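Thread: Newbie trying to understand structure tokens

Hi all, I'm a second-year student working on a class project, and my supervisor (Dr. K.) asked me to get a predicted structure for one chain before our next meeting. I've only ever worked with sequences, so writing a 3D structure as a token string is new to me. If someone could post the tokens and maybe explain what I'm looking at, I'd be very grateful. Here's the chain:
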Amino acid sequence: MHARSKSPKEGTVVDRGVTNVRYWDFFLQAHASLQGTARPAHYTVLVDEIFRADYGPEAAADQLEKFTHDMCYLFGRATKAVSICPPAYYADLVCTRARAHKSELFDGDDTSSVASSNVAAAAAARSVHPRLAETMYYI
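---
Reply by user tm_fold:
Sure, no problem. This is what the structure looks like when written as tokens:
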């Protein structure tokens, strides 16, 4: 444990005792807490097509946990490890962007004629400049 934050050291994995007996899951404390107490991420393996086949049942969990921890250092917006692995972070960013660009699909009430007439106006107001249309950008 860190003396200042009392959080587990970054890279700490718990895969026994508090995990589900029927599923392959684990907790990973990938990052050091910047302030307060860091919360570990909880991962559940849905389908394994790689690790047991390549490393065998004995080493598969260790290899997946190490790979997941290593990925936490690859987030493009941070210079340190992040709390969850970047594919999950990027999926969350895409969903947030979709809600911002297509709010009528998530927040709109299609039964009202006022909402329907405002959909085109709202979409036009959110349009992306043509020079940015084929590029990656941050909101």
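A couple of things are worth pointing out once you decode it. The CA atoms of residues 20 and 66 lie 20 Å apart. The chain has a mean pLDDT of 83. Feel free to ask follow-ups in this thread.
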